[in-house]
């Protein structure tokens, strides 16, 4: 593209919307827009995940990576450019943030370097003396951060059973600054009634912020902002990116002043997502629908298989889940994380170690299937006494289902169950050896 001569007024130069630098260069248009609120037709979510709008000068169909820490200014006084320094803003990150805002039904979204980074930014809205109400089956890392804030920043943290609305009601007061919810909880897969809790918290204290960790469901399956939450965040390391090749966190809200306060922290601390990781997260989000559909269909088949063998299975896609109706009143799917118990931690360890297709790994939301023992891995930062108090079974196995062939996954799991001695093999097939006995139920024998 040839630069217009600034001494010869052109149509472009007369256009007040166009900006030229001192040498008359037409500044490259920002690729940032993927605006959530431009009045255009909204499509189904699977379409919106893929559909982006951009003003890229070359019409690139995937957002360019602006791998630049600084952006040149057009005048000595700084000029009017949208970007000057990547800690404050970067076109690749802005494009991602607008796309995330759109799919989270938010007016503003922000992307940072991890899910915990997002919670760190959010909890910096708290002041000493503030009270936080949160769950007793919280992600281990969130528990660790809140424990740190309680010990060092004079924040009072109440862990209650957030699956009981009354337990939150009993704790909420004018000192409550934040209520932090996660649903389904993990690994106990308990369901939290977000709309009822948001309503009661706001009625009791209009300044309290209801914050939801939506990592387990992703915007594909739930939009907590539509249920009354003030801020929603999630680990982009999980379903949003989907391949376990980046760490990322996103947060979103609809109140502009809350958005500005969150941005202030990000700009001050420099935890904004890097341009390269913003590009990768954007790429991952485009396949969220197809991955999630496959993963949750397989998770359903695996949950039904394990239940049919007599194991106690926790999965909101099973009618036996005690909060099945509540979950489906809030979500469009069951997700792809389930847990089951064997009745014996040593047997559980043997199953985990015998599995081949299922990688022993923390985390979830990846295209590969994962198996873990949360009490020894992702939740090990919660001490054994607290785990006992919160009824977290030490033998619980968490399965995070990927996109492999579901029959291969079931076959590998069956082999691991047999090899670990977790099942009694009969001529008809096999059934759970310990779990059902432990629960006082009659084990099922299914071929
Ligand atoms: N929230 C939940 C429910 C998680 O499982 C995790 C990580 O496992 C996080 C938050 C933290 O995200 P990250 O690991 O990206 O910091």
Automatic annotation (TrEMBL):
Its EC number is 4.4.1.13. Keywords: Amino-acid biosynthesis, Lyase, Methionine biosynthesis, Pyridoxal phosphate. One of its GO terms (molecular function) is cysteine-S-conjugate beta-lyase activity. SUPFAM superfamilies: PLP-dependent transferases. Its cofactor is pyridoxal 5'-phosphate. Residues 71-80 have a biased composition (Polar residues). Residues 1-40, 71-92 are annotated as: Disordered. Belongs to the trans-sulfuration enzymes family. This is cysteine-S-conjugate beta-lyase. It comes from Neonectria magnoliae.
């Amino acid at each position: 593209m040839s630069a217009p001569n600034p001494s010869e007024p052109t149509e472009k130069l007369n256009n007040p919307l166009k900006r030229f630098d001192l040498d008359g260069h037409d500044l490259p248009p920002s690729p940032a827009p993927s605006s959530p609120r431009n009045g255009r037709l909204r499509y189904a979510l699977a379409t919106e995940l893929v559909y982006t709008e951009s003003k890229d000068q070359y019409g690139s169909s995937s957002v360019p990576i602006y791998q630049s820490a600084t952006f040149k200014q057009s005048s000595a006084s700084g000029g009017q450019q949208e970007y000057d320094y990547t800690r404050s803003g970067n076109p690749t990150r802005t494009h991602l943030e607008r796309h995330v805002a759109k799919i989270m039904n938010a007016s503003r979204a922000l992307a940072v370097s991890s899910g915990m980074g997002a919670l760190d930014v959010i909890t910096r809205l708290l002041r000493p003396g503030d009270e936080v109400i949160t769950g007793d089956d919280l992600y281990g890392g969130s528990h660790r951060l809140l424990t740190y804030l309680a010990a060092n920043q004079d924040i009072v943290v109440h862990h209650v059973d957030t699956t009981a609305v009354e337990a939150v009601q009993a704790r909420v007061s004018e000192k409550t600054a934040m209520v932090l919810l996660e649903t389904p909880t993990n690994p106990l897969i308990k369901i939290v009634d977000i709309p009822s809790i948001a309503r009661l918290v706001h009625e009791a204290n209009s300044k309290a912020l209801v914050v939801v960790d939506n990592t387990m469901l992703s915007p594909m399956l739930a939009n907590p902002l539509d249920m009354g939450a003030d801020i929603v965040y999630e680990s982009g390391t999980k379903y949003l990116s989907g391949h376990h090749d980046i760490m990322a966190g996103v947060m979103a809200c609809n109140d502009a002043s809350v958005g500005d306060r969150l941005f202030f922290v990000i700009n001050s601390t420099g935890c904004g997502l890097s341009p390269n990781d913003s590009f990768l997260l954007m790429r991952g989000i485009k396949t969220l629908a197809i991955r999630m559909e496959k993963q949750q269909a397989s998770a359903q088949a695996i949950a039904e298989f394990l239940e049919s063998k007599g194991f106690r299975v926790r999965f909101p896609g099973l009618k036996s889940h005690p909060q099945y109706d509540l979950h489906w009143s809030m979500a469009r799917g069951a997700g792809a994380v389930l847990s089951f118990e064997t009745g014996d931690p040593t047997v559980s360890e043997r199953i985990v170690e015998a599995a081949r297709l299922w990688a022993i790994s923390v985390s979830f939301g990846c295209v590969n299937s994962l198996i873990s023992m949360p009490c020894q891995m992702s939740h090990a930062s919660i001490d054994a006494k607290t785990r006992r108090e919160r009824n977290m079974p030490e033998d619980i196995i968490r399965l995070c289902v990927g996109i492999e062939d579901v029959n291969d996954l079931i076959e590998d799991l069956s082999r691991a169950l047999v090899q670990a001695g977790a099942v009694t093999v009969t001529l008809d097939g096999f059934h759970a050896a310990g779990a059902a006995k432990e629960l006082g139920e009659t084990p099922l024998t299914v071929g």
